[in-house]
Specification:
Distance between the termini: 31 Å
Strand order of the largest sheet: 1-3-2
Shape: flat
Number of strands: 10
Order of helices and strands: HEEEHEEEEEEE
Structural class: mainly beta
Strand content: 25-35%
Oligomer: single chain
Length: about 120
């Protein structure tokens, strides 16, 4: 779990975050970890990426961001990875949902409806 909280970048070995607690890790760490545990790759979801997902470290790590338009200002896509019982995967990308305004019949307030997964 600790490894996936840290961030994969294009380095060799480990480096402390320049912005607080945690570490960056390089492609050699990803390859060693995956080999040791007999994994094809690992998935991390800590950072947003513009296309919703990004392969790094020679496809040893997939960064997934399931939040489209992160913080309502990044204009990124969202993505999810579906893994079946055979360990085959599909990545689905999606854009930010349009916001619908609905006025309740009995009240004077408006409700924002986000239909990301509808």
């Amino acid at each position: 779990m600790g490894l996936l909280f840290n961030e994969p970048i294009d380095i060799y070995g480990w480096r402390e975050f320049d912005k607080g607690a945690g570490y960056y890790f390089g492609h050699d760490i990803s390859e060693k970890f995956n080999s040791l545990h007999n994994f094809k790759f690992m998935v991390t979801g800590k950072n947003y990426v513009m296309e919703g997902y990004q392969w790094v470290h020679n496809k040893q790590v997939c960064k997934i961001c399931s939040i489209p338009n992160y913080c309502y200002r990044c204009e990124n896509k969202g993505a999810i990875m579906i893994i079946d019982e055979y360990l085959d995967y599909t990545i689905l990308q999606f854009n930010q949902a349009k916001i619908q305004i609905r006025k309740d019949e009995n009240d004077d307030y408006k409700t924002r409806i986000l239909d990301y997964f509808l």
